[in-house]
Structures are given as structure tokens and as C-alpha cells.
Amino acid sequence: MTNPDRRPDEVTLSSGDEPRGVQVMTPREVPLGGPRAMHVRRTLPQRSRSLIGAWCFIDHYGPDDVEETGGMSVAPHPHTGLQTVSWLFEGEVEHRDSAGNHAMVRPGELNLMTGGRGISHSEVSPPSTSVLHGVQLWVALPDASRHTPPTFDHYVPPAVRGPRWEARVFLGSALGSTSPVPTHSPLLGAEIMLATGGSLTVDVDDSFEHGVLLDVGLISVDGEELKPGELAYLAPGRSVIEVAAGEEARLVLVGGPPFGEEIVMWWNFVGRSHEEIVGYRAEWQDQITRDGEIVSDSREVSDGRFGVVADQPLPPIPAPALPNVRLKLRR
């Protein structure tokens, strides 16, 4: 998914002092298009925190009535230096990318796209989808892997169950389940469902920091109450996370060791300097421009760093204007 901010911040990300206890972060709403467009609730990045492990972007959306919002229609757009993790609760989204991958994103199925040195892709909900509900997550690639060729992975994790809970581990290991999908840094990603009154103790790697995003219901995380849409941050040093449900709930658990690298994230690019981001933007604009105008059909995009999304006529998304000045360091 693209970052739809018209004036996206240039964000320099780095590790900082970790809070004690549980830090609860509230989302902000971001529209994906015009006045009738679907909205996403964004909890990462924000001023108080930019990264959880290598996780650098968390959007949460729905349940949205497609008749009212028009659904998801995200035209071809570029990415560098990151992986996109698509995870749905309801509905379907059609994915096409410039590496030649064509796949349907369905509930309970992981679609992971590695942008690496550069890729472009589109995401469109088909006419058969009436409700859209899910999360879109980004993972920053470490310096040693960020120029890797683009790839795509699909995985259907099995359900693991216990008393009054069910989980699907789509990245990493937890609750006796391990995902075979390779990652470029240690990661954890899982969907967990709890029945009313249910509780769960999750054994975790104490070198990881973790985030718990609540989709629906009411839960407490290590005793801290969480409302739908909120994200709980837990610093390294815990070997278990205690989750209890006051009512039927669904949550997404993410984690990883502190990233340990400074990165610059602007629009859909992750890089290591302002100048690098400027270069990525210029290359994308060059690919989608003809005679000073943005092409009206993505099949007319010229080949280059970001490639061409085959069989996708939607016009490509032009990059926003760059800021006139550098923004201050965010930690």
C-alpha cells in the first residue's frame, strides 16, 4: 500500500531510550483518496516512536463497506529498502507488481513483497469484495539487504489453538508455530483471537521489542487496557507477554530486536540519506513522465529501477513534492 500523505514527512529513524512498562499509542486517520475514499488508522511511525524492531509502518483499516468507500484502488507506486506485509481479516485485494507477481490477498494468508533495490506494485479490491478489513505493515531492510532484488512470498499459516484462544503466526516463531518465510532480520508477526474472558501468556524473545495492535474487542496487555485501534509498545527485557480479553478480541502481535540503524523514510521509500531519497523520487518521476506529463496508463511507464506493472491500466501515482527543508531528527 502507498503512503497517501500529500506532504509526507522526511523521517530520520533511530533507536532511542526505551520506556518502562507499556506505552500506548493512538492512531491518526489518513484518507487513501478523495472524499469518499476509505481511511486507514496509522499508529506507526509517530512522534513518540518510529520503529518496533524493523517494523516501520502500521496501517489498520476497516471494516469498510466497499459500496460507500469505493474499496481499495491503489494504482502502481514505487518502493525501496523495505518489505510490505499484507494481512486481511475480511475481503480480498488483487496484487500485481513489476517483478511479474500476481496474487490475491485473502484473510489468513500472508503476502510479503520485498522491494529491495526497487519495485512498483498495485493493490485493487475486486468487485466480489463487499467489506475490506485488515492491516498493512512495512519492514525496513537492514543495510546489508536493502539492495536485494525484489521478491514475493505467499504463506498460509496453520491455526494453533488453546483454551479460549486461536493464533496464526505469519512471520517468525511463537506459540509453538514457526513461519518458513525468510526475513532479512529477526521478526515476529502473528494474529491472535481471544474469546470473552480468555487470557494468553505468550513466551517471547527477551531481546525483542514488541507491539500489540488491537483490531476489535477489549484487552489488557501486561495489565494495561487497550482500545480498538491502539498500539501497545513493550520494550526489550520481557520473556512473556500477558494478554487478557474483557470481550471477544482480535489483535496483531509484532516484534523484533531494536533495529540499530538510522534510516530515512519518506513517502514510499526507505533510504539512508536525504540525497538518496531525492534520487529515488527523481527516478520514479522520470519513469512515469512523457513530454512533461504523467502517463495516463501504467503500461506506458518506461522500464527502470522500479519496473513496469503488467496488465494494470490505472495511471501511476506521482510522487509528492519534496519538503523545502530537512525535518528534525525523530527518535
Task: Offer a concise description of the structure.
The protein is mostly beta strands and 331 residues long. It is built from 2 helices and 27 strands. It has one domain: Sandwich (Jelly Rolls), CATH 2.60.120.
Give a written overview of the molecule.
Residues 1-23 are annotated as: Disordered. It holds the Pfam family Pirin_C. This protein is mainly beta and 331 residues long. The protein has one domain (11-256): Jelly Rolls (Sandwich). Helix content is 6%, strand content 46%. It has 2 helices and 27 strands. The strands form 6 sheets. Strands 2, 14, 15, 18, 19, 20, 21, 22 and 23 form a 9-stranded antiparallel beta sheet that branches. It is globular, with a radius of gyration of 19 Å. Mean pLDDT is 92; it is low at 13-18 and 327-331.
Jot down its keywords.
nine-stranded antiparallel sheet; 331 residues; mainly beta; disordered C terminus; Jelly Rolls; single chain
CATH topology heading: Jelly Rolls
Q: What's the CATH architecture?
A: Sandwich
Supply Rg: 19 Å
The geometry reads as globular
Structural class: mainly beta
Q: How many separate helices?
A: 2
- Poorly predicted ranges (pLDDT <50, ≥5 residues)? 13-18, 327-331
The helix content is: under 10%
Listing every helix as H and every strand as E from the N terminus to the C terminus, the arrangement reads: EEEEEHEEEEEEEEEEEEEEEEEEEEHEE
Distance separating the two termini: 24 Å
Sketch the major β-sheet.
9 strands, antiparallel
Oligomer: single chain
Please report the total strand number as a whole number: 27
At the first level of CATH, the class is Mainly Beta
Name the beta content range: over 45%
Keywords: Iron, Metal-binding
InterPro entries: Pirin, Pirin_C_dom, Pirin_N_dom, RmlC-like_jellyroll, RmlC_Cupin_sf
Family: Belongs to the pirin family.
Pfam family, one: Pirin_C
